[in-house]
Amino acid sequence: MVFGQVVIGPPGSGKTTYCNGMSQFLKLIGRKVAVINLDPANDALPYECAVNIEDLIKLNDVMMEHSLGPNGGLVYCMDYLEKNVDWLQAKLEPLLKDHYLLFDFPGQVELFFLHSNAKSVIMKLIKKLNLRLTAVHLVDSHLCNDPGKYVSALLLSLSTMLHLELPHINVLSKIDLIESYGKLGFNLDFYTDVQDLSYLQNLLAQDRYSSKYRKLTKELCDVIDDFGLVNFTTLDIQDKESVGNLVKLIDKTNGYIFAGIEASAVEFSKIAVGPLDWDYYRYPFIISYLKCSAHNCLYFQFSQELHHVLSFDRTLC
Ligand SMILES: Nc1nc2c(ncn2[C@@H]2O[C@H](COP(=O)(O)OP(=O)(O)O)[C@@H](O)[C@H]2O)c(=O)[nH]1
Ligand SMILES: [Mg+2]
């Protein structure tokens, strides 16, 4: 079994910096790490990558040849990768014996809640190479300072969780900077735990831009509340303790903590019920019980609810 992380999130949320910091941390604790750059828009990589999508296809070439902008170009590159997944498989095979894998994906968010290409690449690799991957979804913590943007981050996180159907952790990145963006409307716990979004209504009313969409935002918040799946952990990539806490969480979601243990029910349960030094229930996962049928059902329900909110009542805006 090979373990690893699929690192996703909007542009600038810190994915490449994360892969660099996380690989250094994992090396320090004795793991052999391979970083795989699948973002053709990544230039000047800070890490040494084991596989680089640039060796398969270049974003600039695609944009020139097909007269596409950067967004269309990235969708094309992911489609091309999906068609050439054997190339990626062949590159990964020599690493499988003893490496932990970090996949640095593009920041085009629609690739992860709308298009099927990136998901198809991930699923094919999981199946063919017997990988155990957790999706680490980074969201810049500065979005917490704007209630409208925070709701959009919640919606993005939920739709990505439901679309990707992987063990999933949402992370508020750059948490070291959060105070520099001004005072938050609530304690940080409010934003990480996502317990009761009705409190956001007052903040939305005070905001010049968001107040216009108050009713729409309320309906969207109800959808997020109904699913009750989204919450966040926090990360400062330069803080070892912060990275260490996240690693413990990821190891639990992708099963790394069980690796190398005799597959006996007794050994498994000893670890599963062992004492934890973090607050397990505060953190987000879609655990692997979210099997395919349940996923399809949830994703369908989500699409229906969203469609209902967006099309039903024009007076919402
Ligand atoms: N202060 C701080 N800056 C960060 C952190 N993570 C990333 N950054 C900065 O955020 C910017 C965007 O990061 P990058 O990794 O290129 O984002 P990507 O587009 O998601 O790959 C860079 O200037 C990073 O130095 C963090 O934890 N703290
Ligand atoms: Mg990047």
TrEMBL record:
<dbReference type="Pfam" id="PF03029">
    <property type="entry name" value="ATP_bind_1"/>
</dbReference>
<dbReference type="InterPro" id="IPR027417">
    <property type="entry name" value="P-loop_NTPase"/>
</dbReference>
<comment type="function">
    <text>Small GTPase required for proper localization of RNA polymerase II and III (RNAPII and RNAPIII). May act at an RNAP assembly step prior to nuclear import.</text>
</comment>
<comment type="similarity">
    <text>Belongs to the GPN-loop GTPase family.</text>
</comment>
<dbReference type="InterPro" id="IPR030231">
    <property type="entry name" value="Gpn2"/>
</dbReference>
<dbReference type="GO" id="GO:0005525">
    <property type="term" value="F:GTP binding"/>
</dbReference>
<keyword id="KW-0547">Nucleotide-binding</keyword>
<protein>
    <recommendedName>
        <fullName>GPN-loop GTPase 2</fullName>
    </recommendedName>
</protein>
<dbReference type="GO" id="GO:0003924">
    <property type="term" value="F:GTPase activity"/>
</dbReference>
<dbReference type="InterPro" id="IPR004130">
    <property type="entry name" value="Gpn"/>
</dbReference>
<comment type="subunit">
    <text>Binds to RNA polymerase II (RNAPII).</text>
</comment>
<dbReference type="GO" id="GO:0005737">
    <property type="term" value="C:cytoplasm"/>
</dbReference>
<keyword id="KW-0378">Hydrolase</keyword>
<keyword id="KW-0342">GTP-binding</keyword>
